[in-house]
Design brief:
By secondary structure, the chain is mainly α. The protein contains three helices and no strands. The protein has helices spanning 9-23, 27-46, 52-69. It is elongated.
């Protein structure tokens, strides 16, 4: 591609939403977004819609997100 590699728009949109939720401390929304991200990533991998390198990159990012909310406890 002329201007760099093409990213998966659906996954990138979810990543952006999760980052916003985490930065604003909207952890319930972030947890929900992470679940959607995991599901969509698995779906795209199973359908062969992601290159192995891209899938590995998204999986690494997913594990970072999961680590960020791992110790999340509701305070209400």
């Amino acid at each position: 591609m002329l201007f760099g590699k093409k990213k998966d728009a659906q996954l990138e949109n979810l990543i952006q939403a999760i980052r916003v939720d985490l930065s604003n401390n909207y952890k319930d929304n972030a947890v929900s977004g992470i679940k959607k991200f995991r599901s969509l990533l698995e779906e795209k991998k199973a359908a062969g819609k992601l290159k192995e390198k891209d899938a590995a990159s998204y999986e690494e990012l997913l594990s970072h997100f999961e680590e960020d909310v791992k110790n999340f406890k509701r305070t209400y």
